[in-house]
Amino acid sequence: MALVVEKTSTGREYKVKDMSQADFGRLEIELAEVEMPGLMSCRTEFGPSQPFKGARITGSLHMTIQTAVLIETLTALGAEVRWCSCNIFSTQDHAAAVIARDSAAVFAWKGETLQEYWWCTERSLDWGPDGGPDLIVDDGGDVTLLIHEGVKAEEEYEKTGKFPDPTSTDNPEFQIVLTIIKDGLKENPKKYTQMKNRIVGVSEETTTGVKRLYQMEQTGTLLFPAINVNDSVTKSKFDNLYGCRHSLPDGLMRATDVMIAGKVAVVCGYGDVGKGCASALKQAGARVIVTEIDPICALQALMEGLQVLTLEDAISEADIFVTTTGNKDIIMVSDMKKMKNNAIVCNIGHFDNEIDMNGLETYPGVKRITIKPQTDRWVFPETKTGIIVLAEGRLMNLGCATGHPSFVMSCSFTNQVIAQLELWNEKTSGKYEKKVYVLPKHLDEKVALLHLGKLGANLTRLSKDQADYISVPVDGPYKPAHYRY
Amino acid sequence: MALVVEKTSTGREYKVKDMSQADFGRLEIELAEVEMPGLMSCRTEFGPSQPFKGARITGSLHMTIQTAVLIETLTALGAEVRWCSCNIFSTQDHAAAVIARDSAAVFAWKGETLQEYWWCTERSLDWGPDGGPDLIVDDGGDVTLLIHEGVKAEEEYEKTGKFPDPTSTDNPEFQIVLTIIKDGLKENPKKYTQMKNRIVGVSEETTTGVKRLYQMEQTGTLLFPAINVNDSVTKSKFDNLYGCRHSLPDGLMRATDVMIAGKVAVVCGYGDVGKGCASALKQAGARVIVTEIDPICALQALMEGLQVLTLEDAISEADIFVTTTGNKDIIMVSDMKKMKNNAIVCNIGHFDNEIDMNGLETYPGVKRITIKPQTDRWVFPETKTGIIVLAEGRLMNLGCATGHPSFVMSCSFTNQVIAQLELWNEKTSGKYEKKVYVLPKHLDEKVALLHLGKLGANLTRLSKDQADYISVPVDGPYKPAHYRY
Amino acid sequence: MALVVEKTSTGREYKVKDMSQADFGRLEIELAEVEMPGLMSCRTEFGPSQPFKGARITGSLHMTIQTAVLIETLTALGAEVRWCSCNIFSTQDHAAAVIARDSAAVFAWKGETLQEYWWCTERSLDWGPDGGPDLIVDDGGDVTLLIHEGVKAEEEYEKTGKFPDPTSTDNPEFQIVLTIIKDGLKENPKKYTQMKNRIVGVSEETTTGVKRLYQMEQTGTLLFPAINVNDSVTKSKFDNLYGCRHSLPDGLMRATDVMIAGKVAVVCGYGDVGKGCASALKQAGARVIVTEIDPICALQALMEGLQVLTLEDAISEADIFVTTTGNKDIIMVSDMKKMKNNAIVCNIGHFDNEIDMNGLETYPGVKRITIKPQTDRWVFPETKTGIIVLAEGRLMNLGCATGHPSFVMSCSFTNQVIAQLELWNEKTSGKYEKKVYVLPKHLDEKVALLHLGKLGANLTRLSKDQADYISVPVDGPYKPAHYRY
Amino acid sequence: MALVVEKTSTGREYKVKDMSQADFGRLEIELAEVEMPGLMSCRTEFGPSQPFKGARITGSLHMTIQTAVLIETLTALGAEVRWCSCNIFSTQDHAAAVIARDSAAVFAWKGETLQEYWWCTERSLDWGPDGGPDLIVDDGGDVTLLIHEGVKAEEEYEKTGKFPDPTSTDNPEFQIVLTIIKDGLKENPKKYTQMKNRIVGVSEETTTGVKRLYQMEQTGTLLFPAINVNDSVTKSKFDNLYGCRHSLPDGLMRATDVMIAGKVAVVCGYGDVGKGCASALKQAGARVIVTEIDPICALQALMEGLQVLTLEDAISEADIFVTTTGNKDIIMVSDMKKMKNNAIVCNIGHFDNEIDMNGLETYPGVKRITIKPQTDRWVFPETKTGIIVLAEGRLMNLGCATGHPSFVMSCSFTNQVIAQLELWNEKTSGKYEKKVYVLPKHLDEKVALLHLGKLGANLTRLSKDQADYISVPVDGPYKPAHYRY
């Protein structure tokens, strides 16, 4: 795609695949709004006072319909927004189109190259000559990374006059990042430094991004406050447990149409994602075997009537294999060779290295037969039997289905809105230093509260006397920080 | 589509939408075969002896991938086969293509007109000048109907010289049937009579078809023996209960992506289909309310922790409504008006008249917004709120998902193969009169048996002593006819 | 116990263990009444018209609190009642006491000898010099047996002058029966013949009794009409499936206090009882393995995610073994020797011969350690490890817990009341011949209906139009006879 | 009971109800050992090295069979032990008898008066003239309280010469405590001070005790290190969630025999205890309504398909009410009056003040009918209808059943053993200050590990490479402190 910024009739910049899909996007946004009560309640509660008046927000997060509802919540609260996706495949083009047309500057399309991806990221930060965003919504930390690397390079340049050297790294993606920074440096040697000075803070969506932030906090290199949205209860439990419980069978059924009842399924890992997956498979009538390294999680699996075995124990017996670990090398090609014909292998954990895709692709004589996009049968030459790999080993709920449903994302994204509000409201109070914070529990509870009405729930209210008896405020927070839910 | 029969290079007739989809069809057949152990076992067990050698089979049954595996099982056992679909929408064009290319004479495509539908049906019976099929596989009874009406008309014609009069009926579909018969009569006044004389019997797949057969049996007008496959345990329980338990959530998720957990779902009817649906929704985290007319089924629902209310009780509280009754007028437009905004309304029971589609379509000022094919939002003028109707009120698991999974269809279709074998093997023995029979229980048990190995089951074997103790043969049948499973 | 009939102050006969428990019995009856809405509704509906006015009912059925509510329903409808238990262990002495004191002639106590048991049975038929009962409520058929054997002996005596010879049989129980008949014959050579002439019919509670009745029907020896209550849906499904789902874990917990979660449980047999047991164990967090001889039931188990193996496959892995088959020799002593230390072995199927108690008791060197009544540890000499056998291999839900809960028994017993009413109302109409009948479906439905209100259910009502559409009456019956529920 | 210490033939002191129950106690211990693999593994792993050689342990914890296995694990590791119960009702007399006879000095019986209770507690600390215990196992903190109050009084006495004044408090129990201390002070004015000086630390079992410890830590009055066993994952989740999931239905069934299926159950509170209860009730076929004050827990309930209402909303509809909150005044007498006849009301949370027992007992004209011990029907004068209260509002799983099963207690108690070992091994290292500590996560994981083998689990082992990838040691701990499981 020609990397040229386009403009709407009102002059707002954008770059999306197909503006004609905007109407379809609007229809789907309207459906999603009904399923995202947390975000809609934020509009009702905060909209009138326009708390983000004057705030510029840059977001880098999968440009989907649900994200569109998030963006329009931010703008409804007064913010000006620029957005890119945090993944080259995850944009829904109709969502990008309608937001570009109606609400914010969007630079995203499904199937970007890495070059295009970083061009879009750069655009999301391009608030014109006089600087960058006030606030960042990040997912995976790429925007945060770019700014931190940019500032580092500018400091080095100021000290030594040296430009960053893209050839100094083998990582092709990081070469692109360094090139962008180098080019920026030539234009404006204070570009990222000015940006950093303006930034009030970032709220980060995922484990990966949060991990990077804590590392920067520990090394003292974090340039602005960060809120770890990922570890809110209403984010982590809902996204991982309930989200995957929904989207794992959805992905399996769309990709393979296979009957789950009666099958033997192996779930590798019994953290929140694994718990959601195992529950969904058991409910659908599969017999579920769990593999675990952590004896506590293993004992939890046993308490639910699940068998705990090693992958090796179950390899030749199972019909469905799901990795949920966040670790690598969980299912190797040597394992896949031992599986039953047409065993299904998929990953809903983290990166595609949970499954040894490289080993599979380079296996001598292996034959790949694409049944349909995201559903491949790989046939081994020795046995002529094959296995079915979903989404090329990447997240199968995104690749084969539509990811988490709107209601789950409403929980996540309401945390985002509240985190952004918290950062913005406290921008001058000094409450937040250059550290990583989780949302205070009463805000986590507030996120939950905003989702109860939609589901017809009536909450009980503590009397003052009862609240005193258990030493909590009448309005919460109700639990100590270490409470496990 | 021009109604012209085409021929393969080997001279076999066909009419399908797109022959180029045959390869894709073959891929999907290969996947399905692994999930259809009953049919594959029939090939192994009976293939070598070619029991259908010399038998002509005409089938009228949804021309899907699963049906393709059925057809190729029949041909693997020696039969010659001609096929049409029993529904204008249900053909999978890649399945039709590959069967037409490789295995049988197929006349079917997705989206036939009624005229085209009956042309295809006629072709499936067109075995050339010297008569019709030996055996019929029917689903809904349209082929059986055509032959019976044909014979009736020929008898009338022989007696009175009168042709059937298409204008004698208001039913547009029956007008087509009469026209076909009339045209046939002009060519050959014994066409259907000759056909009837050759036919050994029919095996019928569904409730509707079975109902017609019993009516003909009672009125003494049934022209050949019929086996009621529908009421085999391995058909009815598996198709209705386990099939819908799988395909209801599949359809909901594909059509709407809505989170099922936390929602209130109303399941109208708690027969086998309703039991499967309620179970699936409960497992997915919905709160399920059942409506029932039958106090026994209602009590069963209560024993599973489900609430039993009238539709009226639940109408304004529920998020999802599913009809499973096989009756009509279950959810009327006056009900729909009272529902919450974006309540989902769908039918997995029988005909689209379970939902008052006519009332909805003709409601003054109602607005239909098609979100995507098979997913419509209908907005009422008074409230500006809307409901979401799936598959235009027709079977949502077919319209929004891919119907029952292969494993379930393997149970159904193994019953078909065994019923066809039984009819053919006993064609001269006089075992079957012009009546409707259910498969003997030991054959029903055999169908189940053929599916156990795939799921890794080991069956226990009665000793002679034990068998005598409970007065059953060592090899079954194990249960009395009235046993309820 | 001295076998002497006692009399209440009102002159009613009885023989129970301890009259002082009557007050406690009344308290428990009052609790049970709230849980037995079907019986209480019968009192409300039929009580005023006293339909049983003048009817003498003899019952032989476990003399428990629930049976007490049945008896007082019969008397509330006008009947005069005499009662014994149908099992030497099953009487609840406080239930016997209160009924003896307040409502009917009872002859029953916990722990009868066989001699005592048949004495009680005889008393229940002893309506004085001028004959026997009008109606019989039977469970297992012992009263029916006694009368049939009595009549047979009297006919033989009339023909040949020969008395029955108790030494003609090896069966010690049948020796007692013959002795009773012989003694009766000496007193009154037409005793049972007169009785038979008066009897309107019997309603039979269980499989065993029903089996005997059908055999008598087939051999033409049945002396009066019989209603098979056992095969009402509201009896068989509720008693077997829901009853055992409740009482299996209850018995396990009371007997052993063992944690079910995390354990491996083998359920032998997957009929209704097995389905209830497997469901309960799975819900409680066990991993359940099913053994089956019937491929259909096996496939049903697989569809619920249960593993189907042979006992041998699972013998050394499982912690809990439950027999539910109704067959014999399911778990042999050779199996028990291979079990893990402290594996629990119990039977909830039928007779204690499902478990090879004889083989266990006679195993050389085996040591029995009674932990508490009904809970024995049996230690094998070779391994010094042991297994825990519940209720000496008899029904563990009766032996270790309190049997089925009142609500389940209300379903069974409402069938009994309605069957008795039907027999009595039709006593002169000729509707019932000397055959075995199941209750007509509309009465089965009525039983269910009477239980809905207690559980807060609202039934939907068919319109006339809808009823016609599916060809059923508006008020039911709603299903064909072969419907499987 | 006469408060006189008795002695075994070996000279060990004790005071129990009935020494003749010792053999029965031994039988039950042998059963329990098989279900307590964590404790038995500790014996195998640590027994040979006798790590507690020379250690005196005083325990105050329900003197049950499971505790007996704990005590004999401590003695198997070399400790000398004195024990009392921490609750006047919770002792199992056969457990006390066998331990007194075989293993440790026990002072406990079922149904102690408060006076007797504190006499027993004092005896458990009476290690003779030269001082007290080295280690304390506490449950609820009464032993810890006695020592702290003792030391406080001795310090006051040393300063002012004043004895503590039992009349200074209205609390009758605290009057007893002060009297004991006063009497001790007269004998030895350094009794508790000497004791304190010897004590290495305490491990505390429950929330209540832990709460007190944290308060003492905060006020700087804690006299020795304390390990909070309660908040180990393997304690809190297993005890609360899995323990109550087992013992709630057990208690309901033993107390009332009521059928759970079909009933409406209200669970007040959806913490771990509430989650376990709601799960058990739902599985058993009840329709479950949850009341909650915390929106996060409420949302979790909704995700499981449970309805969230206030008590008021559900009061007249429900059949079973369970309090699980740890708060007070959850169900008031004004609520109970509105309930259905024979609604069951019980508490499995904490103290009996969750249910307004005082309000009930003092309600004018209310009538209490004891059905059987721990099961009372309370009849209101206005309506003549009644409710059924279990265990007089105290913990129903202890009062009506046998508390948590052995396996759950094995998790708790293995934490205790490991905590005691940790305190003892580090007694001179200075690792533990006068603060409250939770067990380090790798020990929590170890507790889980020791329970896997019994349940047939095979744990997966990380490779070094994988461990590095996710930045954890190969042998754990595997999760960060805040991980929620």
From TrEMBL, chains A, B, C, D:
The catalytic activity, as recorded, is:
S-adenosyl-L-homocysteine + H2O = L-homocysteine + adenosine
The pathway it acts in is: Amino-acid biosynthesis; L-homocysteine biosynthesis; L-homocysteine from S-adenosyl-L-homocysteine: step 1/1
Q: Where does substrate bind?
A: 64, 139, 205, 235, 239
Q: Please tell me whether the keyword Hydrolase is annotated for this protein.
A: yes
Q: Report the Pfam families cross-referenced here.
A: AdoHcyase, AdoHcyase_NAD
HAMAP family reported in the protein's UniProt record: AdoHcyase
From the Swiss-Prot or TrEMBL record, give the protein name.
Adenosylhomocysteinase
Provenance organism: Papaver atlanticum
